[in-house]
């Protein structure tokens, strides 16, 4: 049975993550419309504190880029483990977006 509480992924065309060089990750929320963008861009819903908790990174190092003309929110932060190091389990940072995409939208 589907979950009745929508997630960010439900409101987005695409949620993805990728390397931003060997030491940084960038995540992008491409929202379907202006209404979805307003939710994703709302600083009381999605902010540095939330990302720091989700990804166990220092809140002061998180960068947000809100682009209303494109309905896009970009978030960048240092990778906890540099790309290609012995302990790197996601070489291209392609799976980092999953916790963000699963964030529930308050009803």
Automatic annotation (TrEMBL):
Residues 8-103 form the DUF4387 domain. InterPro entries: DUF4387 (IPR025496). Pfam families: DUF4387. This is DUF4387 domain-containing protein. It comes from Lentzea fradiae.
């Amino acid at each position: 049975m589907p979950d009745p509480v929508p997630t960010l992924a439900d409101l987005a065309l695409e949620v993805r993550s990728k390397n931003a060089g060997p030491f940084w990750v960038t995540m992008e929320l491409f929202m379907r419309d202006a209404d979805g963008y307003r939710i994703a861009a709302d600083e009381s819903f999605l902010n540095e504190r939330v990302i720091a908790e989700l990804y166990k990174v220092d809140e002061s190092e998180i960068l947000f880029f809100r682009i209303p003309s494109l309905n896009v929110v970009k978030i960048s932060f240092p990778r906890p483990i540099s790309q290609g190091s012995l302990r790197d389990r996601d070489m291209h940072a392609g799976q980092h977006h999953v916790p963000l995409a699963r964030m529930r939208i308050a009803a």
